[in-house]
Design brief:
about 120 residues, mainly alpha
């Protein structure tokens, strides 16, 4: 039987994979916008690679993180990063309210991570 520290370390690894997958979600969403309907080669290739890796990571993360929580965090962080990048690059206008709502999305995702899962995660990987 695994010790509590080992289980916590394993759980943290799955959260890191989920965070990396959310970052890749922002990458593929941005590349999708730049692909001009898949007519631009490089953004299309970036989209395909990032989307594949993002989905793979989400699939791995749900081995240890409940699906509803993992999906909400993945979408929330990915969306916040996507709109944040669009504002930084000038593609989308920034406003105090928009920043507040993005902070709310990130705060909600962090809150989901902080909550207990409600049932023990399976030991199998």
């Amino acid at each position: 039987m695994a010790t509590k520290t080992t289980k916590t370390t394993k759980s943290t690894a799955f959260w890191i994979i989920l965070l990396a997958s959310a970052i890749l979600e922002a990458v593929w969403a941005t590349a999708l916008g730049l692909s001009n309907g898949f007519t631009q080669l490089i953004p299309t290739l970036v989209f395909a690679a990032a989307a594949s890796l993002s989905m793979l990571g989400l699939g791995i993360a749900v081995k240890r993180i409940p699906l509803g929580t993992a999906y909400a965090v993945w979408v929330g962080i990915g969306a916040a990063l996507t709109v944040g990048w669009a504002m930084i690059t000038g593609v989308e206008a920034a406003s105090p309210l928009k920043l507040l709502f993005i902070a709310g999305i990130v705060g909600c995702a962090a809150g989901l991570k902080a909550l207990p899962t409600g049932k023990p995660a399976p030991d199998s990987e």
